[in-house]
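Q: What structure does this chain adopt?
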Amino acid sequence: MTVGIWWDAFLGLLSGTLVPVMLLGCGLVLSCRIRIPKILNPRSFFGKLADIPENSRNTPFKAVSTALAGTLGVGNITGVSAAILQGGAGAVFWMWMGAFFSMAVKYGEVALAVRYRCTNRDGTHTGGAMYTIRDGLGKYIGSGRAFALGNVFAVLCIVNSLVTGTIVQANAAADVCTPVPEWVCGVFLAVLVLAASIYGIRRVGDITVKLIPALTVLYILLSFGVILPNISLFPAILSRILKEAFTFSSVQGGITGFTIREAVRFGITRGIFSNEAGCGTSPTAHAAADTKSPHHQGIYGIFEVFCDTILLCSLTAFVILTADMRYGILSAGSPLTTLEAYALFGGMLSYRILGFSVVLFAYSSILAQLYYGITALQYFSASCRIRRCYIGITILCTVIGAVISPELMWNTADLVVSVMTCLNIAVLWIMRKEIGEIARTGGNS
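A:
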């Protein structure tokens, strides 16, 4: 019991204090460095998104689809409901705050990943945060230290791909597959992952670029189907989010600080789990893009955060809070809160459509994270035998994830993501001037 209490306290300090402070602080500074209002000017922003090199084999959109595949679905559905259940409606406000400052963070890590990526013999590109640390950070702290930190991050990336990228996704998929046994769902996903690995992991983008846009549009339509008929509740929901984000009332007294900290912790950490800004994983996908410059791909990084958190997470939150105001759904504390909320308004057909979407989202996320893990492995060795072993472990974790305890799973995922985020944000902070230079020159340096 004592160990459990100390562990919860440590995890709360790490993910509830250190990560939010580092993310918001670094995000604020980088927002000034890259002049985020100028970047978000609609004409310039969408112009950069449309500025794609001719004859691209791996287009920027395909890269961002792979990156979104690693985050959409489970983060937007299970992650948001977990944040609200554990941190209250105020967690949504901190999710927004985290997302806004995450835009600059995402821009920085993506732009650096493109600048320090490696070009393979066949003309394709390989990169990620570990390459940025090894080749870029070395100019600031010395090549020896940077090499060691690059190795540490690559190991963390491999662990994260198995835990957050595979076990968490499989667990969420199994939850929505009732009354099908959880292990059956795990085996089904494992077979699909095996088929994709035979097809070719480097061609994951071909799968995600077809799945993700269609699933996203479907999710938006289902969400608006709930929100628009209940639009009169919008002011009350917004007021509740803001009120619970800063709960200062005499009735709460001594638990005020705890209440706010929990909202911050679960809002920002679940936001990171959703859009991966700051933790350094999605730059692996962006680094492989055929893009005109680090600045151009950095814009796609901002677009990724907007789609993931500002748009889809917000839609999920409003559906859940609408269902709570109508039916008090949060009092049940169910892990399937999001799906149940949609079912209350759209019936079982809506539940089944969304449940099937979660399974597909989970599948695409596992594939994307498998690609991240293999890229991290190749950072150490190009051995085909090691890669096959890793794919086998991923398939095993897919089955394990379907039946594992959710509490153990989330605690482990929070720990891994938080440690990666702390390391990656420290790197971005040290290299903040370089990030500002990329933004100022617009990729023309």
